[in-house]
Amino acid sequence: MEFPYMEAVVGFMILMYLFETYLDLRQHAALKLPTLPKTLEGVISQEKFEKSRAYSLDKSHFHFVHEFATILIDSAILFFGILPWFWKKSGTFLPLLGLNEENEILHTLSFLAGVMIWSQITDLPFSLYSTFVIEARHGFNKQTIWLFFRDLIKGICLAIVLGPPIVSAIIVIVQNGGPYLAIYLWAFMFVLSLVMMTIYPVLIAPLFNKFTPLPEGELRLKIEKLASSLKFPLKKLFVVDGSTRSSHSNAYMYGFFKNKRIVLYDTLIQQCKNDEEIVAVIAHELGHWKLNHTMYSFIAVQILTFLQFGGYTLVRNSTDLFRSFGFDTQPVLIGLIIFQHTVIPLQHLVSFGLNLVSRSFEFQADAFAKKLGYGSALRAGLVKLQEENLSAMNTDPWYSAYHYSHPPLVERLAAIDAADKKEE
């Protein structure tokens, strides 16, 4: 008797949905609390707290609906055999175009085209509601409907240009990889990730946003002085027009070796009127670089990727696994999809572990910025970002431990204050 892999996968998906919904309910209850955490009393204004509370509750209500629809659709696709049916149907279109349906690469690309159309149809109502109702209601959305659909079309075009060669290469590697398949797949994805990290900020990101050099002035001088003091190889300092889409703010850095770049959202500059607060935020980001957090994270991702491909090579020829999901053939892409579903339990554990590490890194980067003398400025900057982004002020400890890659503001301020007390 064959093991019911598909039923087991669907069952676990539903169990995880119920568990995560329980955590969501705990978080929803925390969001409904009418008072600020004691740590934030006198730090966050009551007006900002009420706005944050309303925004967080709106997003929470929307999240419940979105997650219920998602688990319903995903479970139905697997349980009712829609996935193998769709695979077979996608091949029938190829002869109409004069193409060979026996060619696995062409069949796979036809399948993915259908999946992309389906995902756009099912995701679009949620994206529109999130952007033009929730984000707009709370003053964040700056997009026009035209800009929204222009970004959508650009994203689809990029998928059409980049997807086929990547998918084709993966299929060829799997078909010819032999006993070293895991190594070949990992090597391909490693090179691909380096290429994408190189071309994304230079060729892809500018398709969606405008990047301009940070104007000469005090802020630029302070950031350059900080970078120089840490021997950070800063080559370019940009401002991105994030305000064309949202009033949320952020900052990030990218680049390899001696060619590093820092990008500030224009909304960050607008919201943090004090240059020291912005420099403190950059000091935190540079702390990640100085403490090698970026390198450690990259290495961890590469190890996990290799282990996943190793696991895939063990099950890719399992006819029982494919039959359980309704397939009488063993296409490469379908094998990858099925494998991803079967390792969902491990993925959740790994994700939880990575969040623990990430939160530890955030505390270390905060401590690094404080050691440079930006403790009070970082504290003020974190509070300002929390206020302006209307981030949740009250968080459930179980929910944040499971979901958050960054510690809640209360925990970060407590860590900074604890360091101050130790120094005293």
Q: Overview of this structure, please?
A:
Keywords: Endoplasmic reticulum, Hydrolase, Membrane, Metal-binding, Metalloprotease, Protease, Transmembrane, Transmembrane helix, Zinc. By secondary structure, this protein is mainly alpha-helical. The protein contains 15 helices and four strands. It has a four-stranded mixed sheet. Helix 4 runs antiparallel to helix 5. It is globular. The model has no long low-confidence stretch (mean pLDDT 89).
In the sheet with the most strands, the strands line up as 1-2-4-3
Question: Pairing-aware structural class of the strands and helices?
Answer: mainly alpha
Instruction: Provide the gyration radius in Å.
Output: 24 Å
* Number of E strands: 4
Q: Return the string of H and E elements.
A: HHHHHHEHEEEHHHHHHHH
Nutshell version of this structure?
By secondary structure, the chain is mostly helical. It is built from 15 helices and 4 strands. The mean pLDDT is 89.
SSE arrangement:
Blueprint lengths: L4 H27 L14 H34 L2 H11 L11 H34 L7 H32 L4 H24 L6 E3 L4 H12 L4 E7 L10 E4 L5 E6 H6 L3 H16 L2 H23 L3 H6 L7 H11 L1 H45 L8 H7 L5 H15 L1
Parallel strand pairs: 2-4
Antiparallel strand pairs: 1-2, 3-4
Helix pairs in contact: 1-2, 1-14, 2-4, 3-4, 4-5, 5-6, 6-10, 7-9, 9-13, 13-15
